[in-house]
Structures are given as structure tokens and as C-alpha cells.
Amino acid sequence: MARSLKGQGHNHNKTDAMNLADILIRSAATHPTEIAVHGITDFNCTYSALLKRAQGLARTFRTLDALEPGDRILTLLENRSETIELYFAAWLAGLVIVPLDATASAGRIRDIVRDCQPALAVVSHRSSDAFDPVRTGPAVLNVDEPAYSKRIHAGSWTVTQCEPGSLAWLQYSADDAEPVLGVMHSHHSLLSLVNRFQAQVKKVRPGEALFHSTSLAQGAGFYMLPFIAAGGYQLIPDGDRCDTDALGRLLERHLAVTILANNAMVERLVSAAEHWSDNALAGVDSLIACGQPLSCELTDRVHNRFGHRLLSLLGHPECPLGMAVLDLIQHRFASYGDCRDRLTSAGLPMLGIDIRIQGDNGEALPAGAAGQICISGDTVATGYWSDESNGAARFNQGWLMTGDIGYQDETGFLYLTEPTREDLLLVPKEDAAPLRSRTTMLEDSHRAFSQTCMGLSVASG
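^ that's the sequence the OP posted. Answer follows.
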């Protein structure tokens, strides 16, 4: 039976069955001939074809591999087109994906396998060497071998409906320096995430594409979901890098581009844009800065070069796609008049996210007082796999204690003051060592994967 998540106040009637794969089923019915996945080289897949490929894989997972709902599938892959169909195949079959960055060390892979005990591991020729030394039980499927191609033509599969709280996505960090904690995301939380992104961050239009140069096993994978739900397509380049010169050339060939970047990448983009053509600059629709708030100086540079197309998201591993947003209108308003200090804020809480600033004794602090940032909402993860002690400590009475320090002003805008230097909620006090805040960890995980660290949304012309 699929593992159901507890906590965070997510109470659902057991008859309210759902499955994250419904967003693909719906888009395949609405946009059957539209491109869903496009590789830079020669791979193109429509929504109708993507659903059929995912159904074929789902069928073999349940029949050939004899997997049961709730079983875990670990994917150890570089960015490639097959990743999308594998995720949806797992969900169609009622299974759980455990995406792991292909840059993970053999030791890290071994620890994660021991923790979540996947029933199947999916690798490529490129990543199989890293997995070979740590085969501790799961069967292995290689996407570059002929057997994989046969699976995608295995026939149809009816979606396995799940309880809303059933686990869909189990997220681990590939960083050896971090604790082995599997963050649990349910079907309900991820479907809620899709709706909130569309409503408050960006209204994705059919035919837009999300360009992936960051790891689909990390934050970029979550951004894939609202694009699939809206009939957009995934543009996945060969390899793991896309430099700013290549981006400039790409922008010249497309009408509207949304760029997702961490703070370091924002700096690089502003500098690179000095050499881009007018056509390339005209292709930028918006720039989403993810991570800690930008400085006023850098924000001004973005506005001067790109115009008022900037919005900011404060991301968190336990709250994918942001817990607070400073949107386009707020950026524009704060750039003029007496509210420029808001440019250094993380913005207002995302719809459905409650934020509480907590003092040292667990008390709620008033506006303007700095304390630990705690969040609650149905897009927040509900705990950690096989680690009830950390889950109970970090998820306290429905609130996730993020480990970040900040305050809210009287109008609700959130400001970060400093990350916590020691996160005692992750390890026993006697064994505690200084750990980075969860927000800083998220930024660093993107930076470690690629110096370019960006995802792009592209509407083709």
C-alpha cells in the first residue's frame, strides 16, 4: 500500500482519490499533438506519445518488475528526455520517485539506497559506474539498453488512484556534507504546488517551454510540473551545461523567455546581457530569481538591463517552488517611491502558506522582531523518510521550522536577517555541528550541479 503522510494538518477523506499523473493525462487529452518534451538534438515527443511511453513503462513496472504501490524507484540520471516519462510512469503505477543527481558520490548513493530501500534503480551508461559499487538489493534498469526501448511500447496502463496524502516524491540532497534525510512530498502537496505557481508566480501558457540546464533531480524537476499541467513543453539540452552565450543565441530564436536563476546566475546574466543583441533582450519575458533576496544594487542592474521583468522566490527543500514571492508588480512598485527597502525582502507568503516568526522559547513574535521562520501549508513537505525523530522535532504542531532567521514587517513582507549557524533539529545536541540554513543548502545544491545554474522557460516563435 502507498505510504500515507501524516502531519501538517493535511486531512483528506479517503475517497478523495487523486494522482499527480492526472496532469499529464489531462494535457494529453487537451493538447495531444503539442510537443511535450523536446531534446536539443533529435528527440521530440508529443503529449499523446509521452503518455503512451509512460503507460508502457508503468505497465512493466507493475507486471514485469512486480512492483507494488508505494514502492520506490531511484533514478540516477544526468538531465535527459527520458527523465520526464520515468517520473510520470512511476506515478501512473502508484509508485514513488527518488530522484538523485548523477553527480552524487558512490558513498552518498549507498547511504540513500540503505535509507529508502528502492525496489528499482534506473541508470544510464554514464551513471551506471557510480551505481555499480553500491548495488545492495534493487534491480537495475539502464535507459541506454534495448530493454528500455521495449518497455515504452508495452501497452496501456490505467492510472492507479492514490490517497491524497500518499507519497509521490522522495527528495534527498546529493551533497555528502548534509544529513541523509528524505523529504516527503505527497500527490496532494505537489498538485497544490502546481496551482499556486500558476496563480501567483507565473501563468504558464500552452506552447511555452521550460529549458533545463539545472538538475531535474533537484529544483528544476518541480518546475517541470506546472508546465506539463499547462500544455507547455520541456526543452532538455544534451549535457549538463548551457553557458550565457548559448542562452543569448537561444533567445534570438524565441518570442518569450522566462529565466530561472540563483543569485550567482543573476549576476552572470546581467553581465552577459551587455553583449546580447536587441533581439535576444527582446526575448526575455521575465527573470525569476530563486534563493536569498537580491541586493538593491543587483536588482537595479537587472531592471536597467532587462526592464521590470524581475520577480523573486524564496525557495526551500521542504517547500518547493517557494514559500514567499516578490512578484512583478511588487518589484515595480518598490522600485519607485518610498518602498525601496522591499526590494531586499523575500516578498509576501505564497498563497496557502502561513508564516510565523518564532522566538527562542517557541513564542510567536510581533512584526519587526527577528526569530526563526516557521511555515505551514498544504504545499509544505510533511516529514522525513524513516526519520521520525527529526520529523517530530522540525515539524512542530503543524509548523515547519526552516532554520532561517528573519522577520515580517507590519504589511507581511518577509525579510531574512541571517541563516542559523547550528541546526540542532537535524542531529542530537551532543553531536551537533554547524550546519547551513535550509535555504542556503538549496542555493548551494543548484550551484554544485552547474556553474550556470538556471532553468529557462521559452515560448517558441
